[in-house]
Design brief:
single chain, alpha/beta, Nucleotidyltransferase, domain 5, 18 helices, 14 strands
Length: 540
């Protein structure tokens, strides 16, 4: 066991350069060295903190016994407080204090109340008497109750008791979450919102309920669903001095800014490779309180470590090239005879690994950089990958009518001055992860990691990212690096567009009654996993 007090004293003495330091042995010394390395990295600005939340299990001891499922709208309604003591059942109507009646019984009373034909001498419609209604339907006890029946008949609407419906939703949500956790599914707060809307839809509850952040937080406390937070401290150790890296980054940006006026922003590009997992899963999940280990089910374990490479091209105008270059790992470096899924916005290659080669780089230039719609005179920023620096290889595939200037970012500087690293890949991967997580939750038999399914997903996501609505987001990646491009106005990220808080609605798919999980950036309609991913939604 680590002697924490002794380690803290040692670190304090070392940091303050005190003459006397405690002597440390074994694990204490190793732990102190690790912490000092982290502190030095933080002091040099080369330090990142990632907080992840894992929901583990339900635990009786941690439940908030004072919690009730009512929301703000409930508190604005004139309802009785004693509904909390009733078991959760859908579509219950409160007729008197503490007495609830199911909708079916109320509708029976409404039908009977309007069953007589004809009118009286005064022209009023013939109705069963109050005594008849009171005798036949025991929940009708006074004229106020009878007026409720009249109002329902006239408007075909009635306020179902919100508190009772919310209690039903809350209990059903607990059952659903418990089942998914037992199955090892990955859950997040956005998953809870989806499940809530799904509960409302499948039970045909007459309630408009958008779960707020506060309601979700209190529900988790009320059911003892813990939020197990894990914090990762990542230090980026460089062989170069931090000051040197920063200076080289500034010099590169300044030199590039001197060249930018000679090109329109639509002719300045950044290309960069990034490895994606075949089955991208979120490291953040709901779990039950007290769990020390959180096993999560993925469809194929090897697919969480095996990767493919994507190579996008992004302009300083915030426009993503319509074609995403993809390299897959295939046995013997060849596709099977049956081929693979094809779409107009992806160009797919393969190799014995997912790592790009010089020949694949040349193919990228031929199929993307020099395709007919691209400008003939352009500037391209790339990292220090060896093949990028092979000018003769690039020249060998450059058309005679094209003139391309390639600027290579110094090693170690890409995290500061490469737009794809600074602002594109993180959002790209987040969208892929969120779609994958929903597929794992609702369609566990769908092989997301398979070749064609992977390509379908990438084609869909890239098409969404290429929307003109996201142009400010992509352009901000250049601005954030320090390049002389206009600062974009306020913008939403891809995830904010595709997964807004109220994304869970009725699916827009033809005749579909399932709950949506995504909103198309183009048509702004909501779709379930089937009608967006499986059907391969393309509205324009």
């Amino acid at each position: 066991m680590i002697n924490v007090d002794k380690v803290v004293d040692y670190i304090h003495a070392h940091w303050k350069r005190l003459p006397k330091k405690p002597c440390l042995d074994g694990d204490d010394s190793n732990f102190a060295d690790f912490l000092l390395e982290a502190l030095n990295s933080a002091a040099n600005g080369n330090f990142e903190i990632f907080k992840e939340e894992f929901f583990t299990e339900f635990e009786e001891d941690t439940k908030d016994m004072n919690w009730s499922p009512e929301d703000e709208e409930y508190h604005q309604l004139n309802v009785y407080n004693d509904v909390e003591d009733l078991p959760g059942q859908p579509n219950m109507i409160q007729f008197s204090k503490g007495e609830f009646v199911h909708l079916d019984k109320v509708e029976e009373a409404v039908e009977f109340y309007g069953s007589k034909s004809g009118v009286t001498n005064s022209g009023a419609r013939i109705r069963p008497s109050f005594e008849t209604m009171k005798s036949r339907f025991r929940f009708i006890k006074n004229s106020h109750h009878l007026q409720k029946i009249r109002n329902y008949e006239a408007t075909k609407t009635i306020k179902f008791d919100r508190a009772n419906n919310l209690k039903f939703i809350s209990n059903e949500l607990g059952n659903d979450v418990k089942k998914h956790l037992e199955d090892g599914k990955i859950l997040q707060d956005s998953t809870l919102r989806f499940l809530i809307v799904d509960i409302i839809n499948r039970n045909k509850l007459d309630i408009r309920f958008d779960a707020s952040d506060d309601w979700i937080l209190k529900w988790k406390k009320g059911f003892g669903l813990s939020s197990r937070k894990i914090t990762k401290f990542v230090t980026n150790i460089r062989h170069q001095n931090r000051d040197q890296i920063e200076q080289e980054s500034k010099d590169f940006v300044n030199q590039t800014n001197q060249i930018l006026p000679f090109y329109p922003s639509s002719s300045v590009f950044n290309a960069d490779q990034s490895g994606f997992q075949l089955e991208m899963y979120s490291a953040r999940t709901l779990a039950m309180t007290g769990s020390k280990h959180v096993p999560c089910v993925v469809q194929n374990v090897s697919s969480t470590t095996h990767a493919y490479t994507v190579l996008p091209l992004v302009s300083a105008a915030g426009i993503l090239h319509k074609t995403l270059f993809i390299t897959l790992k295939e046995r013997n470096g060849k596709f099977p005879k049956k081929g693979h899924f094809k779409a107009p916005n992806i160009f797919v290659t393969c190799h014995t690994s997912h790592i790009m080669t010089k020949n694949l780089m040349k193919t990228f230039f031929e199929e993307v950089v020099f395709e007919p719609s691209m400008p003939k005179d352009a500037l391209l920023l790339v990292d220090s990958w060896t093949s990028w620096k092979d000018q003769s290889a690039i020249d060998s595939v450059t058309p005679p009518t094209n003139h391309l200037v390639v600027r290579v970012i110094p090693p170690g500087c890409t995290g500061m001055v490469q737009p794809c690293d600074v602002g594109i890949f993180g959002s790209f991967k987040k969208v892929v992860k969120m779609i994958t997580a929903h597929g794992q939750l609702m369609y566990p038999k769908y092989k997301i990691y398979a070749r064609d399914e992977t390509l379908k997903l990438l084609s869909l996501v890239w098409w969404q990212l290429c929307s003109p609505k996201l142009q400010p987001w992509a352009q901000y990646a250049w601005y954030a690096c320090g390049y002389d491009v206009p600062r974009p106005p306020y913008f939403q990220t891809p995830a904010q567009y595709l997964f807004p808080k109220k994304v869970s609605q009725e699916c827009h798919g033809n005749g579909c009654s399932k709950t949506s999980f995504i909103k198309c950036i183009y048509c702004e309609e909501h779709f379930c996993f089937h009608h967006f991913v499986l059907v391969h939604h393309r509205c324009c």
